[in-house]
Amino acid sequence: MSETIVNKIQQNTKLVTLDLQKFYDDTPIEELDIKQFLFQELLLKEKEFRRLLKDHDWSQYEGKYLRVYCSTDAIIAPWAWMLITAHASSYASQIFKGTREAFHYDLYKSSLNQHDWNQYQDKFVMLKGCGDITVPDSVYLLVTNKLIGKAKKIMYGEACSNVPVWRD
Q1: How would you list the strands of the sheet with 153-158, edge to edge?
Q2: What whole-number distance in Å separates Cα of residue 56 and Cα of residue 74?
Q3: CA distance 156 to 163
Q4: CB distance 139 to 18 below 8 Å
C-alpha cells in the first residue's frame, strides 16, 4: 500500500516565488547604430540618408527585434527614425529606439502587462534575484508597483536569504 507524501509546509505556505526571467522574450535581437547613415557620422543629409537606407540590407533583421540608436552626438530629426522604421518594418518583428536597458524594459513590460497579478492577492511574494538572464532594475520597480496592494509581503532574493521590501 503506497501513500502519497505531502509536503504540508509547502502546501500551506503563502510564499510564492516569482522568477522574472520567465517573462524574458528570447526572440533574437539585432542592433543598428545609424551613425553609418550620417555624413561624417554626425550630420543628417536627407538625400544621402535616404539613399543609404534604400541600399541597406534590411533582410538581415527578418523575424528579429531591431533596436536602433545613434552612438554619436548627432541631432537626429524625428522623421529619420520614421524612415528607418518604414524600411525595417517589412522584416523586423518589432523596432525599438533607445538604450539597451530601455529596450529590455519595454520587452519585459509588454509581457508583464499581460500577466494576471490577482493571483498574488494576500501572498508572500519572493522576487527571485539571481539567474542566467539579467533583469533590469527598472523591471523590479515595475513588478513591485504591480504587487503593492495585492501581495501581503514582497521580498527579494531567495527563500534562505531574502531582503524584505514591502509589507501590507
Answers
A1: 15-18, 124-128, 153-158, 161-167
A2: 20
A3: 5
A4: no
Strands 94-97 and 15-18, sheet pairing? unpaired
Given a contact cutoff of 8 angstroms between Cβ atoms, the answer to whether 77 and 44 are in contact is yes
**Dihedral pair phi/psi, residue 137, rounded to 5°:** -55, -35
- Over residues 76-129, the pLDDT tens digits come to 999 999 999 999 999 999 999 999 999 999 999 999 999 999 999 999 999 998
Grid cell digits, residue 14: 503563502
Residues 78, 80, 82, 88: what is their CA dihedral angle, to the nearest 10 degrees?
-150
- Rounded CA separation 24/134 (Å): 10
Task: Enter the pTM of the model.
Answer: 0.80
DSSP 13: -
Distance CA 92, CA 94 (A): 5
Phi, psi (deg, nearest 5) at residue 55: -85, -10
Q: Are 78 and 84 in contact (CB under 8 A)?
A: no
